[in-house]
Amino acid sequence: MSTFVVVGLQYGDEGKGKITDVLSAKSDYVVRYQGGDNAGHTVYVGDEKFVLHLLPSGVLQCPGKCFIANGVVVNPKSFIKEINQIESKGLKTDHVFISRRAHVIMPYHILMDTYREEEKGGTEIGTTKKGIGPCYEDKIARVGIRMIDLLNPEILREKLEKNLKVKNAIFSKYFEKPTLDIDEIYEEFLAIGQQLKDRIVDTEVELNEAIQQGKNVLFEGAQALMLDIDFGTYPFVTSSSPSTGGVCAGAGVPPTALQNLIGVSKAYTTRVGNGPFPSELHDELGEHIRKVGHEFGATTGRPRRTGWLDLVSLKHACMINGINNLVITKLDVLTGITPLKVVTHYKTEDGKIIDYFTSSTHKLYHYEPIYEELEGWTEDITKVRSYEELPENAKKYIQFIENYLGINVYLVSVGPERSQNIIRKELF
Ligand code: GDP
Ligand code: IMO
Ligand code: MG
After folding, report:
1. What is residue 426's predicted lDDT score, i.e. its pLDDT?
2. Which residues are placed with Cβ below 5 angstroms of ligand 3, an ion?
3. Structural domain boundaries enclosing 214
4. Which ligand 2 atom sits closest to the C-alpha of 133?
5. Pocket of ligand 1 (CB under 6 A)
6. % of the chain at pLDDT higher than 90
7. Cα 307 from chain centroid?
8. Do 92 and 42 sit in the same domain of this protein?
9. What's the distance, Cα to Cα, between the start and end of the chain in Å?
10. Together in a domain, 112 and 92
């Protein structure tokens, strides 16, 4: 048994795609288990840039199979678009499959997401407007359309009729927007089902067999723990469980099967979308980090908010995920900044000093972060490949994180390229 889970520990965009791509070279399976095309995972291969939204980042060099498992919400049009993009660059995609159980993002989910966000005018979550939340709502309400339904004309028609009755009433009466035509959607999604039929399979049995046979199975998380529906900054979260725990329900594998739990964090923090961010920088330094780190959303193009590394939230994320291997990315972006600050505690509204994350999201806006200052470095580290060669202060920064969290950093990323990694121990 050799399983690996890569998850984000912050607010997304930690560089999970790059790490998954690197690990996928030795993986027999790479599996997405939650979220949908709200994700944006960037992988650089030489001068070529790939941004994967729905396909596992393993698609580029995994010698085995790539699965989009049952827990993912699938926009099949995005799937086809991405497959075409990858194929147009000369890469194969016949190793990519979707679970029959995965729920389908329908046009009404996207509209519902969009209208709701528009309606809130300033208090919106700042979603990607990809229909993620509304699709998961229908799944939980047991009215969702699954990939397997696209292959059955009667069931698809029946489910569409029931759904559109309700959705069209909300669109016309509540949002005062146009209604949707059932025939158009029915024909389109029936055709999509036929186009994808050879890729729609049962993924859980094969995955469990692979795990039993000791194959390398890599689960790729999208989003991150601070966007987790339960443990993130609710309601400013996504609608799934991007934690390691999410793998079990999202791919149909038992908790006992999960071994290497890899948590990815940037050397600082970013957030795209709304919600509290105690260590956010609103000054020139924040702008500098955004510029040097190219901090613009891979899915929506929005500028990412930037700030110092928050060890209190990172500890919370490591605890919920049970992380046993840490990855720190974008250390190169901090070059030239001194002093560096990291959050070690918060001061609450009533003056209490705490080092744990709160469930009261609204209070977090009023918490004052307490920082530890560390000296920076000026040397270019983008070409460093061994930990020993890092500047002393960069090592001290990494050690400070390790000591605070009590977890070893096994990989430090010093640039967007596949090769720009300092690997301290090979996981497999
Ligand atoms: P993901 O959603 O977690 O896969 O992350 P994104 O791809 O959305 O955002 C991470 C961005 O940082 C991408 O543009 C990566 O190419 C880039 N990146 C990843 N690791 C590093 C690194 O160590 N240094 C620098 N400078 N960029 C990196
Ligand atoms: P990756 O996988 C960063 C954010 C949105 C919004 C909130 C809810 O690239 O790390 P949603 O559309 O999911 O209902 O939006 O979650 N969000 C992300 N932020 N990276 C992502 O994915 C994200 N996926 C969703 O900006 O704040
Ligand atoms: Mg991203």
Report:
1. 86
2. 13, 40, 298
3. 2-97+201-260
4. 14
5. 8, 12-18, 39-42, 44, 293-294, 298, 329-330, 332-333, 413-416
6. 95
7. 19
8. yes
9. 12
10. no
